[in-house]
């Protein structure tokens, strides 16, 4: 008959109470271990062999439908989300029966951007690592501006200093970050080269806000304008800049770099500015930028843009126009706000073309040199650029005529 097995527990694992009770009994300590009963090994549960895997099991463990759809908030919205009104308008009967359905107004429908010219411009931009606000801000006019019969007839707004902004306005779809990548030192030369290829008569430059830079990127902006003017002296340049955190010296630096039109957008009325724009962007600060640009260079055209459909009132719009005239702004544009993603503000109202026409007439009555107003109008819009181009060319020809007359008069005085 087999003898029962014994197990030994090290003294280091004995409790202090157990050691004390042994010392009280004065047992002789002859071994370094203690004999204890063998631990009872629990019975193992009967193992159940897994059954054969079925097709339904593999299907349930696979990707779900949401994995294919994606949930990235930066993706383009569905038509229902993009057109959803913040305050839907509906009758009492509709509210009782079913929720209202927002439909895209006919005046906001635009064609899909296609065509050889569209592809050529995009290839030029990607080849030189350039960005456009047309793409980054998902402008609805991209098919109209890029789809001309040839590239010289097209309009593209070049966005300088990368595609990442340091500010997060609630209406803009441009990427944001606290520390964007460093500036590309070759960007001014590449931009001038691309525009030289197209042979444009009028070009619009804009940029992201770069609060991470000491000068806000003003020197980079000014250098790009100088490069363009060196390669194409007759090309008219419009610069749509930020506010440079209120540093008016940087505003004057850009205004004196050789540009023809200085644009800075107030975006909305003063009352809605804290809710629409980044907290660092202020309405009064934008007015100071436009005033400083006008004072920096005589005859410089200044321009701004206002979005409608954010909940502004008629009296607020009128007061905004009066403030703009006080700082001698020449051109103003009105356009419909359209929600780019779910992270951005909802549309409060779809303004009709008749209302846009009313504001165009009022702006002209108040003394603005030009006003482009319509649901699809944006701050850099082809029709407005054509008008401003004509105005600038007339000014240049008038100045040439005046100079010729002065020289002729001096010659007559010398002869006499």
Describe this structure in words.
The chain is of the alpha/beta class and 416 residues long. It is built from 16 helices and 12 strands. It has helices at residues 16-24, 55-60, 65-69, 79-82, 92-97, 116-127, 133-136, 142-146, 187-198, 218-231, 248-255, 273-276, 283-296, 314-326, 353-365, 382-415, and strands at 7-10, 33-36, 131-132, 157-160, 164-165, 175-176, 202-207, 236-240, 261-263, 301-308, 331-336, 370-373. Strands 3-4-7-8-9-10-11-12 form an 8-stranded mixed sheet, sandwiched between helices. Helix 11 crosses helix 13 (283-296). It is globular. It starts with 6 loop residues before the first strand and ends with a helix. Mean pLDDT is 76; it is low at 68-74.
């Amino acid at each position: 008959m087999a003898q029962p097995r014994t197990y030994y527990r090290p003294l280091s694992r004995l409790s202090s109470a157990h050691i004390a009770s042994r010392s009280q009994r004065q047992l002789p300590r002859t071994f370094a271990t203690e004999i204890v009963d063998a631990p009872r090994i629990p019975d193992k549960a009967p193992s159940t062999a897994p059954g054969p895997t079925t097709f339904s099991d593999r299907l349930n463990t696979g990707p779900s439908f949401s994995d294919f759809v994606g949930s990235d908030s930066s993706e383009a919205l569905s038509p229902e989300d993009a057109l959803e009104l913040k305050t839907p308008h509906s009758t009492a009967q509709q509210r009782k029966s079913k929720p209202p359905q927002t439909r895209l107004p006919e005046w906001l429908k635009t064609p899909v951007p296609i065509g050889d010219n569209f592809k050529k411009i995009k290839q030029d931009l990607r080849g030189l690592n350039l960005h456009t606000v047309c793409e980054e801000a998902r402008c609805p006019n991209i098919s109209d501006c890029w789809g001309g019969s040839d590239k010289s007839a097209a309009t593209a707004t070049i966005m300088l200093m990368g595609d990442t902004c340091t500010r997060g306005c609630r209406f803009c779809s441009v990427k944001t970050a606290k520390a964007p990548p460093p500036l590309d030192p070759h960007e001014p030369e590449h931009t001038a080269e691309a525009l030289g290829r197209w042979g444009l008569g009028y070009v619009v430059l804009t940029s992201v806000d770069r609060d991470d830079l000491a000068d806000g990127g003003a020197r980079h902006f000014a250098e790009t304008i100088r490069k363009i003017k060196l390669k194409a002296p007759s090309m008219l340049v419009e610069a749509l800049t930020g506010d440079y955190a209120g540093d008016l010296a940087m505003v004057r630096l850009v205004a004196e770099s050789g540009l023809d039109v200085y644009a800075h957008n107030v975006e909305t009325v003063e009352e809605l500015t804290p809710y629409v724009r980044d907290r660092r962007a202020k309405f009064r600060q934008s007015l100071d930028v436009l005033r400083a640009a006008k004072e920096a260079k005589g005859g410089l055209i200044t321009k701004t843009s206002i979005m409608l459909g954010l909940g502004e009132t008629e009296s607020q719009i009128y007061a905004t126009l009066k403030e703009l005239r006080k700082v001698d702004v020449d051109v103003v544009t009105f356009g419909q706000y359209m929600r780019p993603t779910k992270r951005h503000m909802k549309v409060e109202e779809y303004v009709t073309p008749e209302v846009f026409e009313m504001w165009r007439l009022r702006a002209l009555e108040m003394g603005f040199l030009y006003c482009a107003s319509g649901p699809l109008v944006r701050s850099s819009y082809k029709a407005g650029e054509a008008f401003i181009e004509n105005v600038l060319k007339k000014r240049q020809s008038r100045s040439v005529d005046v100079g010729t007359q002065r020289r002729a008069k001096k010659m007559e005085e010398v002869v006499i």
